[in-house]
Amino acid sequence: MVSSAGAASAAPTPTVKPALGSPSYATLEKRIAGALAGDDTAGQTTTKSSQSASTGTVDAKIIGGQQTTISTAPFMAQLWYYDDRGTADESDDIGFFCGGSVVSPTKILTAAHCVQGYDWNANGAVLTGTSQLPTSDSSGGTDLHGGTATGVQRQWNHPSFSMRTIDNDIAVLTLAAPVRATPIRMVTSGDTASYTAGKSATLYGWGRTSSTSQDISETLKTATLPLQSDTTCSRYYDTDFIAGHMVCAGDPASGSDAGTTSACNGDSGGPLIVDNRIVGVVSWGVQDCVAKGAYSVFSKVRTYVGAAYAQVDDANLSYADAKADLWVRNASTKTGYEKDSKGTSFATRESWGDWNGVNVVLQTDLDRDGIQDLVVRESSTGDVYWMHYVVSSGSWSRSKIFSGWTTRTRIVVPGDVTGDYLPDLLSVDSAGALWIYPGKGNGTFATRVQVGTGWNQYNSLRGHGDFTGDGKADLIARQKSTGDIYLYKGTGTSGSGAFSTRVKVRSGWTYNAFDAVGDITGDGRADFLARTTGGTLYLYKGTGKATSEIFATRVSVGTGFQQYDIFG
């Protein structure tokens, strides 16, 4: 919200330090070494059909491919898991390997069967930047072949994942620190062309290269597979194949290594790519990968991009979970406060000290490092600052990103509007024109692009994340004259087509303050906050529907909020 506040010579600097932590490099290498020695299978289970249940475990695997380099697939990640179970008996140790894709500097897209039931923070390591598997060196250490090992801060798998049916097999790991690997994007929810039967898709992984050996590949491999229709997949796998949730690819296996090109054990969690977008995540297949007529099965990313995107864009003030927190400022004392989300309520406020002299404070993550940034506007000058935490120095950095924005009526940081996974910034000028400032991922912006005019008809414009479940950032606007609430659904593009035609989702709202800070409840959907004139703050939980049912029934999250004049 925009409010009047006293002048100050510069935007204040937060005094808090995020509670971050990561295992030592030696610990990560030890985990990798332990996983290298392990022979377990991630998410070992059986599927329900005779085709696969009779033959064994979750087998997600590249046979018949060719060697490639990390420069061709810089987004590829190795996921190593080792849990020694804390006993002297090594037989109960758990060690396994999965693949994954870097979809932002701190986010790895992978399969749920590689994640559910495992504590990746305590036992995992992610290796990026190398095409080679680690090896033991002459000194008894582990040679990472130029790769970088990173710890896992937290994990998410689809809440409806079924280990029995391998349905909803998608997950996201959040790294403890950003990596330099070049991210790759997921396919959009509206993209049907990328799944056209017969279209060529590219598979990458370090999985088994033979049906007769359990050894995974020491170097990254790739293969080209034709996509198959749902009818073809269902004909072979019967009800094990769930159309809409899964996609299969490859020519029918020959029954032996010769003549078969297929994913195989160790490829689990890796990407299937069409036109430089991830369309599938390696999920399951038949045991040993080459049974006559079989296909490789992948999670259909188009279906899950909304839920996964919420995990990619989930930086928050507490840094400990995937729930968006609330920043507010007391109108009389000018003290800023953090209120951490508890799902459907907020914890006791924590003081951030004196925040006099500003009239806009917004929460975002412009550099995609997983640590929440702030965009702050100075009252006297209109100068706008980007404030972000620098892990290496343990301090906050402040840089001016815009000058003289005193007449800008709205500033919004909804996340990625343009579809490149880099958070953008929007503003409305005094003439009512809405502008997009495309983020570059480092606190700077490309040349602004105008969306349209007439935006000063709204006295509130808010957005942070995806309200409709399609993996694209949206906006919520309130009309000044009527109090009606409109949804502007993001399209993932820039310019005049950045948002679809508005949809009225509520009528005559008389609230006097609004906020959108992201996914407060942690369910993967953006939520909305509204304050009454009496100071009661209500949570409108997002439903993911782009209709009048966009919000669930409101829930009170507290009273006394009339004391705050800035909601971040």
Quaternary class: single chain
* Structure summary, number of beta strands: 37
Distinct helical segment count: 5
* Radius of gyration, CA atoms, in whole angstroms: 25 Å
In short:
This protein is mostly beta strands and 568 residues long. The chain is 7% helix and 33% strand. It starts with 24 loop residues before the first helix and ends with a strand.
Description:
Strand 3 and strand 4 form a beta hairpin. The protein is built from five helices and 37 strands. By secondary structure, the chain is mainly beta. The longest helix has 13 residues, at 25-37. Mean pLDDT is 88; it is low at 1-9 and 45-61. The termini are close together. Strands 1, 11, 12, 13, 14, 15, 16 and 17 form an eight-stranded mixed β-sheet that branches. It has a seven-stranded antiparallel β-sheet with strand order 8-5-2-3-4-10-9. It has a four-stranded antiparallel β-sheet with strand order 20-19-18-37, with no helix packed on it.
SSE inventory with pairings:
Blueprint: H1 25-37, H2 50-53, E1 66-67, E2 76-83, E3 94-104, E4 107-110, H3 120-123, E5 124-128, E6 135-136, E7 142-143, E8 148-150, E9 152-157, E10 171-175, E11 185-186, E12 200-205, E13 221-226, H4 230-237, E14 246-249, E15 271-274, E16 277-284, E17 296-300, H5 301-312, E18 326-330, E19 335-339, E20 350-354, E21 358-364, E22 373-378, E23 384-390, E24 395-402, E25 410-415, E26 424-428, E27 434-437, E28 449-452, E29 458-462, E30 475-479, E31 485-488, E32 503-506, E33 513-518, E34 527-531, E35 537-540, E36 555-558, E37 564-567
